[in-house]
Amino acid sequence: MAPPLSRRTLLQSAIVAAAAPGFAAAGTGGASAAPLPPPASWTLQPFQLKEVTLGKGLFATKRQLMLDHARGYDVNRLLQVFRANAGLSTLGAVAPGGWEGLDGEANGNLRGHYTGHFLTMLSQAYAGTGDQVYADRIRTMVGALTEVREALRNEPVVLSAPGQFGNAAENVRGSYQYIDLPSGVLGGASAITLSTWVKPTHDADWARIFDFGDNNTRYLYLATRNGDGVPRFAITTSGPGGEQGLNGTATLPLDEWSHLAVTIAGGTGTLYVNGVAVARNTAMSLTPAALGTLANNWLGRSNFPADPVFAGAFDEFDVWSRALTADEIASLRDSRAADSSAGRGDLASYAFDETTGGTFADASGRGLTATLRRTWGAPSHPGFLAAYPETQFIDLESRTSPDYTKVWAPYYTAHKILRGLLDAYVATDDDRALDLASGMCDWMYSRLSKLPDATLQRMWGIFSSGEFGGIVEAIVDLYTINGKAEHLALAKLFDLDKLIDACAAGTDTLDGLHANQHIPIFTGLVRLYDATGEQRYLTAAKNFWGMVVPHRMYGIGGTSTAEFWKARDVVAGTISATTAETCCAYNLLKLSRMLFFHDQNPAYMDYYERALYNQVLGSKQDKADAEKPLVTYFIGLTPGHVRDYTPKQGTTCCEGTGMESATKYQDSVYFKAADGSTLYVNLYSPSTLTWAEKGVTVTQTTDYPREQGTTLTVRGRTGTFALRLRVPSWATAGFRVTVNGRTVDGTPRPGSYFTVSRKWRDGDTVRVAVPFRLRVEKALDDPSLQTLFYGPVNLVGRNVSTSYLPFGLYRNAALSGDLLPSLAPVAGKPLHYTLDGTEFAPFFEGTEDPTHAYVRRAEPRVVFGNTDSGVANPAKADGTSLLDEIWAGAPFSGKGALVARVRSTVDAWVSAGLLARADGETVVSTARSATYVR
User: Fold this and answer.
1) For residues 625, 626, 628 and 631, what is the CA-based torsion angle, rounded to 10 degrees?
2) Number of C-beta neighbours around residue 303 at 10 A
3) What's the CA dihedral at 385, 391, 396, 397 to 10 degrees?
4) Which of 217, 238, 308, 611 has the greatest number of C-beta atoms within 10 Å?
5) Closest CA to 792 of 808, 775, 780
6) Between the CA of residue 82 and those of 107, 115, 454, 513, 657, what are the distances in Å?
7) Integer Cα distance of 101 and 313 in angstroms
8) Separation between Cα atoms, residue 754 and residue 748, nearest integer Å
9) Is the pLDDT of residue 445 over 70?
10) For residues 599 and 536, what is the distance between their CA atoms, to the nearest angstrom?
């Protein structure tokens, strides 16, 4: 009897079979387990990343840049926002900033997402290389996140730091912590002094040093900065309009200790900074006695909810029931209160010497113990893990409209963290990662299962705020390991019925939807189909794919403009500087891959090649950088656009998925039939496959796409299996296969797979020749706007012009229909060509050149073989020109066949009144006299 399968083995199988690459550990120090077959409905299985090794070439070069980034970036910076949220020490790390920091877009409401992406990148890097450094970094992050969750589940504890005299209590920015004082701390005094040492670490206006009040009507506060950037004290019984105040004269320095004191007595208030009186108000009639007993007595928190929590440290806070003299205030600057001429405060005195626990002793003799608290109240619920409080999740449940400054896709961020933890678990076998992932899903189920279906449907339909990414896919992956019914039920709670039902019915409702909010929904639906067998999930996913490809697809494989979809078949009309969000291509690749496991429609892999070799490769800059991954957000397709590899404020979603893409390039090169009878070669890429079950390796040797073909060498045991080689849909110039030098019988058809079935022996060599041709693809809504392809490679013009460049391509077209002879190759630069002074280069080159992905096709005169007939090239009402119709008949077997095509087309156009007879004869004569490239 076989031993029981480990939990990790089960999850590994599910993830390998799903859209996520096979993240099994590899190399030294890595745990390993054999994956299970994917669901019974899947006829294909992927290989694990460790089973496919990239060879030298385009992909390996790009990947190395990202591997170096993964190796060198300080993961404590990513953990900073998590640790801060939990009130833990951040070890001096600085948050990455941008979307992953409090000062980023929408107040950093998406922070935490990037850490999940980084975990996935590290997991893939470890699986693909076996380099222990990536596993070590994963374990560091998982350990820290475990500590974060534990801290969130408990009341906050003091974070002790060096103070001005002894210890101090630190409030890390982003911790949402404050010190709660007992209600009698001010004692109803008619004269008072409040004194404290503070070390602010952030320059936010209106952060309170202290605030005593009931609400925003009756209060007394001291802020580190007012709107002018200087300290302000105020007291009022009638709100802001009735404040009696004192304003400082200079900004408090950051990361330095400053002493502040306020005295009120006899109608005079004085503000001291570092022992010096900086403001005096002789009309300050209000005192704590006028305020009465107050409900909120806080250090570091404001009675105005929109004000920031104080970030920094407190050392000594004392309150006296009298106004200290100037000399007594000055003595507090030079020594502890207990050692000063003023002595300890008689109303309250806190030294903040505590190094453990969450309370602070009062040395005044009144026993007013202070307590460290969080603004959101009680500890978080079991399983919760995030870099911000539960408040965004709570707000979403009652929200009816988007506002990402309040709620920005909390379940999207949860997905990234969950995905990263699952990938980390499979890569390193660290049970802590699985426990964190399981806890997150337990927590989500405890929230969402209590909500009415109408509430869930409303939530998931809200733009941005309700976005949840690929969380369903990740939850189903987790369900495959633990079999927990609640987790499968949780996955179904994310069903957005109006979208699923429309797509299942084949009704296109995508116009106006946010593209990347919806694409990953469908990878989740495929996984739900796997888990439940519910057909509408799979049908919806297939139909959805067909609504995007090609109807909303740009030539490079991308989709969306300004992140949204427009009407079906509108491509030229949507081109802008913000087209083709990179995340969209990432998620469409995942969906295409998943669907191919169910249905071996070659169109899915044709799309995969298009998007991978163009947008995804081209989204990564060909440059090393330790600080940033250098990946695009949008790829503008407007004329002269320059790619931005440091988009927005940084740490964006697209940089996150870009890190993932660049560490899993090999995940779809090969697939295998579930019964082991067939090996699919989907992509031509230098690589070595280790097919352990067969006892063979298959090595591709090629410089594709700089080389027009590949060589596969089979080594190992003798065995029988079918080799299915993808024949790209663009491979109209032939597709030739030889085994050990002998041509394989059969007729390869573009847009299919060509099968070679035999008993393979050690050393067998398969040579695949895939000749390229230059062709154009026309925008669906404007045939004159075209993009150039040479084989799988999109060629873009490099030109500073910001207008569409006009080009003619028929001038020297070959008899085969290949347009390449009209361009001139650039010596020493493979896949580079010039035309009319503009250099065309592969889109996949990650440069900062101004590019033209689309050009304006202009064929003003009829030209054959570089011979100009002098006759204008007429066109029909739909834009089809005479030359278009002639060359639509390519390839031609010889010059005679072309001339015959010219004659028949000319006669038809003359008869239709579209071309004068004399001009037609000139066109035929020119075609007959011209010389052509074959």
Assistant:
1) 40
2) 21
3) 90
4) 611
5) 775
6) 15, 9, 32, 32, 20
7) 20
8) 6
9) yes
10) 15
Query: Which residue type sits at 539?
Result: T
Residue 409, judged by CB atoms within 10 A of its CB (0-12, 13-18, 19+), counts as buried
Q: How many CB atoms lie within 10 A of CB 359?
A: 16
Give the Cα separation of 36 and 838 in Å (integer): 53
pLDDT band at 24 (very low <50, low <70, confident <90, very high): very low
Residue for token pair 């005195």: 349
Residues paired with 276 in a beta bridge: 273
For residue 817 the two structure tokens come to: 């229909």
CA dihedral 784, 788, 794, 795 (to 10 degrees): -120
pLDDT band for position 198 (cuts 50, 70, 90): very high
Beta strand residue intervals within 106-176, DSSP E: 160-162, 167-171
Q: What is the separation of C-alpha 232 from the centre of its chain, rounded to a whole number of angstroms? A: 42
Condensed to tens digits (0 to 9), the pLDDT of residues 78-125 reads 999 999 999 999 999 999 999 999 988 998 999 999 999 999 999 999
pLDDT tens sequence across 645-696: 999 888 999 999 999 999 999 999 999 999 999 999 999 999 999 999 999 9
Asked if 843 and 854 count as a contact pair (C-beta separation under 8 A), the reply is no
Question: Any idea what DSSP says for residue 678?
Answer: E
C-alpha to C-alpha distance for 395 and 402, rounded to whole angstroms: 11
Residue 834: phi and psi, rounded to 5, are -120, 150
Say if residues 259 and 236 touch (Cβ distance below 8 Å).
Answer: no
pLDDT average, residue stretch 816-827: 97
Q: What value does the mean pLDDT take over residues 399-416?
A: 97
Instruction: Read off the pLDDT of each residue in 918-932 and give the average, rounded to a whole number.
Output: 98
Cα 74 from Cα 144, distance rounded (Å): 13
Least Cα distance to 602 among 730, 729, 737 occurs for 729
Round to whole Å and give the CA distance between 459 and 525: 18
Per-residue pLDDT, 199 = 98
Neighbouring residues of 299: CB distance < 8 A, sequence distance ≥ 6: 178, 179, 181, 196, 208, 209, 210, 310, 314, 317, 370
d(CA 891, CA 789) in angstroms, rounded, equals 17
**Could you tell me which residues come within 8 angstroms of residue 277 by beta carbon, excluding any fewer than 6 positions away?**
270, 271, 326, 329
CB-CB contact of 76 with 94 (8 Å): no
- What pLDDT digit, counting tens, does each position of 199-239 carry? 999 999 999 999 999 999 999 999 999 999 999 999 999 99
Q: In the block, which residue shows the tokens 């947008």?
A: 615
Residue 34 has pLDDT above 60, yes or no: no
Contacts of 912 (CB under 8 A, 6+ apart): none
Crossing angle of the two packed helices 582-598 and 653-661, in degrees rounded to 10: 50
Distance CA 230, CA 248 (A): 5
Q: Which is it for strands 855-857 and 782-790: parallel, antiparallel or unpaired?
A: antiparallel
| Contacts (Cβ under 8 Å, ≥6 apart) of 742 | none
111: tokens are: 């922070």
Nearest-angstrom CA–CA distance, 710 and 752? 17
Surface-to-core class of residue 94, CB atoms within 10 Å of its CB (0-12 exposed, 13-18 middle, 19+ buried): exposed
**575: exposed, middle or buried (Cβ count in 10 Å: 0-12, 13-18, 19+):** buried
Q: How far is CA 76 from CA 96, 143, 156, 257, 587, in A?
A: 10, 12, 21, 26, 28
Beta bridge partners, 678, equal 722
> Distance between CA 521 and CA 524 in Å, rounded?
5
Burial of 508 (0-12, 13-18, 19+ CB in 10 A): middle
Q: Rounded to 5 degrees, what are φ and ψ at 281?
A: -125, 115
Give 910: exposed, middle or buried? Use CB within 10 Å, 0-12, 13-18, 19+: middle
